[in-house]
Amino acid sequence: MDPSFGLREWVSLVSALLYLGLAGGAVLARSRGPLTPPFGRMCASLFAYESFEFFKHLTGAEVFGHLECAAASLVAPTTAALVIVFLGAWRSHRWLVVSGAAYFSFISLLCLGATVYPPLEAFSGQAPWAIALLIGLVPELGYLGVLLVRHARSVEPKERARTQLLVLALVLGVGGAGSDLASIAGLPTPRVAMFGLIAAALVLAALAFHMDIIATTRRLLIANAAAVVMVTVLLQALALSFADRPVLMATSTVAITLAALVTLRPMLAMQAEERARLRELAALGRLSAQMAHDLKNPLAAIRGAAQFLLEERARGASMDDQEAFVSLIVEQTDRATRVVDDYQRIGRAEAVRRPLELRVLLEEVRSGQQAASSRHPIELSMSQDGEVSIDRDLVAGALENLIRNAREAMPEGGAITLGASLSETRLSLFVEDHGPGMDPRAKERAFDDFFTTKATGSGLGLAFVARVAEAHGGRASVRSELGKGTRVSLELSL
């Protein structure tokens, strides 16, 4: 092998093999998605480009240089076709692909012509060739960039992340190729095309082949962040080419860093949105599991009673003496209905306001809960009475939840205070106990769905209380001290 075989030749060889593998993978995976055919054509042109560059450096033959330029000229139209297919805009923007293909194919033919017509050697691989490519690249890819930005603004988060990944891949590929073209055109820029194109091809492969990298929004965001870092490094390398002009280099470096931070910001926002969505799905799953658990007992009782009655009937026994089992079925059916109603209220918590007397509501809640335990006297504290417009069932249910919690916090007994204060615009309700209180961590999570410190608790009670307050345009709060008790308040807007 030629002793001059160095790093550049190795990179060209490895790149050519990589593009050949990606193109072959696209051929084998044509049925896996609409992006694979245009991706395969793009990789084929990149394979030809890197192969001819490898043989040019290895042999020194100019013919391979002309073939390299011819292949490089075809990368742009195949990339544009890939973007148009990704956007699902082939029918409406086929003109862009066709016109771009015609323009760049003409440039490619001129380079091929240089292999047989010597005067064209002054064009192929020289400044006029680079300028001609830039003239075609800038408007075409600029227009595609506008289409991608519009697409990203109108789609759901996962598709938006894919679009951002495609944009970053284009920046890597076009930015790298643009640096080489600018250098050939006479500008003092480093030539980093091969590295930018490799990174871009790998990113595009993930999109084209539906690899694991795009399986979740989280992985998409990680890939996006990595691509932003690569783009930033590429641009910073270009900025270093202005070393002889320190002010311009410093300004470019700061601008590139700020642009990277601005680009990462929506990605972080999307990650937060994804985490919130996952929390909601997890809460829904736990709600479903808890509801299934709460329904199993009454359903088991109903089934047992019904099965017993069927067996008695099969034996010819009279049904006249089975009133207890019939009553059990009715009772457990009502219990199951209440469970469903409770969960519907928890999920909905929509306030249907009707005027009612505040004292009447509190007395009903107090008397109903007082009957449940004589060891927990409930004291009523009201600073002002009057008529309020609230959802009676929701508010009563929230107060009953709080009183039950207060009783459970004081298993040995103790007084509970049910209180209210009223103004023209606000209604404040509270339930206070003198139990062991909450530590700061429990208090912080008190209103979270499914958070509970009880061995048999569902963690839905205080979450429901918070939703009732929110449904009335207010909020729930908790004040608690270890060893002194807890006070949960509801501030409702009237």
Topology, please?
Blueprint: H1 7-28, H2 36-59, H3 62-73, H4 75-86, H5 90-113, H6 127-153, H7 157-184, H8 193-209, H9 217-239, H10 246-314, H11 323-348, E1 354-357, H12 358-370, E2 378-382, E3 387-390, H13 392-409, E4 416-422, E5 426-432, H14 440-444, H15 461-471, E6 475-481, E7 485-493
Parallel strand pairs: 2-4
Antiparallel strand pairs: 1-3, 4-5, 5-7, 6-7
Helix pairs in contact: 1-2, 1-8, 2-3, 2-4, 2-8, 3-5, 4-5, 4-6, 5-6, 6-7, 7-8, 7-9, 9-10, 10-11, 12-13, 13-15
Distinctive features:
five-stranded mixed beta sheet; Helix Hairpins; elongated; alpha+beta; 494 residues; Heat Shock Protein 90
Could you characterize the architecture of this molecule?
This protein has 494 residues and is α+β, with helices and mostly antiparallel strands. The protein folds into three domains: 7-242, Rhopdopsin 7-helix transmembrane proteins, CATH 1.20.1070; 283-348, Orthogonal Bundle (Helix Hairpins), CATH 1.10.287; 354-493, Heat Shock Protein 90. The protein has 15 helices and seven strands. The protein has helices spanning 7-28, 36-59, 62-73, 75-86, 90-113, 127-153, 157-184, 193-209, 217-239, 246-314, 323-348, 358-370, 392-409, 440-444, 461-471, and strands at residues 354-357, 378-382, 387-390, 416-422, 426-432, 475-481, 485-493. It has a five-stranded mixed β-sheet. The chain has a two-stranded antiparallel ribbon with strand order 1-3. A hairpin with a 3-residue loop joins strand 4 and strand 5 (426-432). Helix 2 (36-59) packs antiparallel against helix 8 (193-209), helix 6 (127-153) packs antiparallel against helix 7 and helix 9 runs antiparallel to helix 10 (246-314).
